[in-house]
C-alpha cells in the first residue's frame, strides 16, 4: 500500500483528491493536511504527498516534502522562478526523491497541449484562451502557460515566425499576456470549472482545439497515475505528459 498525504485537503482539489485516494484499493490516506496543520508531523509515514494548496508558500511546502524524503505530486499553479530554485536545491540533497509539477492532470488537457504544439507548426497565427471559475487565484492558468511554452518551442524548432499582428492596443491587456511570443487570454466566469481553447489561423481557415473539465473528477485519474508512478521518477519533472 502506498501511503498518501494530501496537502490543501480542505480545498476544492484537495477534497476531490482525498475522495479519490480513499476509493483506491492500493492507496491509503495517511494525512489530510490543512493551512494550520504541522506539515512535518503530517508527512510522517507518507510515501507520497499530493500538493493542492494555493500558490503562496508552495515552494516551501514542496521543499519540505523533499527534505522529509516524501515524493511530491504538485497540482498547484501560479508559482515559477525563484520558488522552483528552492525545490531544485532541496532535490540536490535528496536526489532519489521525485517531484512532479503538473499544471493539469486531465488526460484531455495533456492531449490538447500535444495536439496544439503539433498544429502550431502549420498555421501562421496561434492564440490561447483559458476560461476558469472566478475563484481561481492565478492568471494565466498554469495549463495555458504550459500550452503556450510548448507551442512556442514547436514553432521555434520548425522555424515558424511570430503570429502576424499589426494592432497597437489602446488599453493595457487588450491583447492578453505574452508567453514566449504567444498571446494568452484569461476569462473568469461564474459557472465554469476549467476550459482552454487554442485558436489557429491560416489563409481562409481556422482550427480550434478545445478541452473542457466540467468537474474536478476529471483530474483524478491523472493524480492517481502520478501517485502510483512517482517513486520510479526521481528528480524534477514538469508536465504529466512525461508520465504517459
Ligand atoms: N494540476 C491540476 O490539474 C489542477 C486542477 C485544478 C486546480 N489546480 C490548482 O490547484 C490549486 C488549488 O486549487 P483549488 O481550486 O483547490 O483551490 P482552493 O482555494 O479551493 O484550495 C486551496 C486549499 O489550500 C489550503 N492551503 C493554503 N495554504 C496552505 C498550506 N500552507 N498548507 C496546507 N493547506 C494550505 C487552503 O486553505 C485551501 O483549503 C490551484 O493552484 C489551482 O490552480 C490544479
Ligand atoms: O481551477 C483551477 O484553478 C485550475 N487550475 C489549473 C491551471 O491553472 O491550469 C488547471 C485547471 C484548473
TrEMBL record:
<comment type="function">
    <text>Catalyzes the conversion of 4-hydroxy-tetrahydrodipicolinate (HTPA) to tetrahydrodipicolinate.</text>
</comment>
<keyword id="KW-0520">NAD</keyword>
<feature type="binding site">
    <location>
        <begin position="8"/>
        <end position="13"/>
    </location>
    <ligand>
        <name>NAD(+)</name>
    </ligand>
</feature>
<feature type="active site" description="Proton donor/acceptor">
    <location>
        <position position="132"/>
    </location>
</feature>
<dbReference type="InterPro" id="IPR023940">
    <property type="entry name" value="DHDPR_bac"/>
</dbReference>
<feature type="binding site">
    <location>
        <begin position="75"/>
        <end position="77"/>
    </location>
    <ligand>
        <name>NAD(+)</name>
    </ligand>
</feature>
<feature type="binding site">
    <location>
        <position position="44"/>
    </location>
    <ligand>
        <name>NAD(+)</name>
    </ligand>
</feature>
<feature type="binding site">
    <location>
        <position position="133"/>
    </location>
    <ligand>
        <name>(S)-2,3,4,5-tetrahydrodipicolinate</name>
    </ligand>
</feature>
<feature type="binding site">
    <location>
        <begin position="102"/>
        <end position="105"/>
    </location>
    <ligand>
        <name>NAD(+)</name>
    </ligand>
</feature>
<keyword id="KW-0521">NADP</keyword>
<feature type="active site" description="Proton donor">
    <location>
        <position position="136"/>
    </location>
</feature>
<dbReference type="GO" id="GO:0008839">
    <property type="term" value="F:4-hydroxy-tetrahydrodipicolinate reductase"/>
</dbReference>
<feature type="domain" description="Dihydrodipicolinate reductase C-terminal">
    <location>
        <begin position="108"/>
        <end position="243"/>
    </location>
</feature>
<comment type="pathway">
    <text>Amino-acid biosynthesis; L-lysine biosynthesis via DAP pathway; (S)-tetrahydrodipicolinate from L-aspartate: step 4/4.</text>
</comment>
<dbReference type="Pfam" id="PF05173">
    <property type="entry name" value="DapB_C"/>
</dbReference>
<feature type="domain" description="Dihydrodipicolinate reductase N-terminal">
    <location>
        <begin position="3"/>
        <end position="105"/>
    </location>
</feature>
<dbReference type="InterPro" id="IPR036291">
    <property type="entry name" value="NAD(P)-bd_dom_sf"/>
</dbReference>
<dbReference type="InterPro" id="IPR022663">
    <property type="entry name" value="DapB_C"/>
</dbReference>
<keyword id="KW-0560">Oxidoreductase</keyword>
<feature type="binding site">
    <location>
        <begin position="142"/>
        <end position="143"/>
    </location>
    <ligand>
        <name>(S)-2,3,4,5-tetrahydrodipicolinate</name>
    </ligand>
</feature>
<dbReference type="InterPro" id="IPR022664">
    <property type="entry name" value="DapB_N_CS"/>
</dbReference>
<dbReference type="InterPro" id="IPR000846">
    <property type="entry name" value="DapB_N"/>
</dbReference>
<feature type="region of interest" description="Disordered">
    <location>
        <begin position="155"/>
        <end position="174"/>
    </location>
</feature>
<keyword id="KW-0457">Lysine biosynthesis</keyword>
<keyword id="KW-0028">Amino-acid biosynthesis</keyword>
<comment type="similarity">
    <text>Belongs to the DapB family.</text>
</comment>
<comment type="subunit">
    <text>Homotetramer.</text>
</comment>
<keyword id="KW-0963">Cytoplasm</keyword>
<protein>
    <recommendedName>
        <fullName>4-hydroxy-tetrahydrodipicolinate reductase</fullName>
        <ecNumber>1.17.1.8</ecNumber>
    </recommendedName>
</protein>
<dbReference type="Pfam" id="PF01113">
    <property type="entry name" value="DapB_N"/>
</dbReference>
<keyword id="KW-0220">Diaminopimelate biosynthesis</keyword>
Amino acid at each position: 500500500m502506498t501511503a498518501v498525504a494530501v496537502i490543501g485537503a480542505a480545498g476544492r482539489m484537495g477534497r476531490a483528491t482525498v475522495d479519490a485516494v480513499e476509493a483506491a484499493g492500493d492507496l491509503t490516506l495517511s494525512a489530510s493536511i490543512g493551512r494550520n496543520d504541522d506539515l512535518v508531523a503530517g508527512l510522517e509515514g507518507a510515501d507520497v504527498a499530493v500538493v493542492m494548496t494555493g500558490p503562496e508558500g508552495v515552494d516551501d511546502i514542496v521543499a519540505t516534502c523533499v527534505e522529509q524524503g516524501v515524493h511530491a505530486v504538485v497540482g498547484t499553479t501560479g508559482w515559477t522562478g525563484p520558488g522552483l530554485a528552492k525545490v531544485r536545491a532541496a532535490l540536490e540533497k535528496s536526489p532519489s526523491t521525485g517531484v512532479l509539477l503538473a499544471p493539469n492532470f486531465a488526460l484531455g488537457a495533456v492531449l490538447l497541449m500535444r495536439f496544439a504544439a503539433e498544429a502550431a507548426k502549420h498555421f501562421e497565427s496561434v492564440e490561447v484562451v483559458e476560461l476558469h471559475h472566478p475563484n481561481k487565484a492565478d492568471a494565466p492558468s498554469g495549463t495555458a502557460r504550459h500550452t503556450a511554452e510548448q507551442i512556442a518551442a514547436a514553432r521555434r524548432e520548425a522555424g515558424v515566425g511570430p503570429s502576424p499582428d499589426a494592432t497597437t492596443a489602446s488599453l493595457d491587456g487588450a491583447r492578453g499576456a505574452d508567453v514566449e511570443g504567444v498571446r494568452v487570454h484569461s476569462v473568469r466566469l461564474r459557472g465554469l470549472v476549467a476550459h482552454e481553447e487554442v485558436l489557429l489561423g491560416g489563409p481562409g481557415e481556422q482550427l480550434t482545439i478545445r478541452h473542457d473539465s466540467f468537474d474536478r473528477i476529471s483530474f483524478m485519474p491523472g493524480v492517481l497515475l502520478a501517485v502510483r508512478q512517482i517513486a520510479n521518477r526521481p528528480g524534477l519533472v514538469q508536465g504529466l505528459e512525461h508520465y504517459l
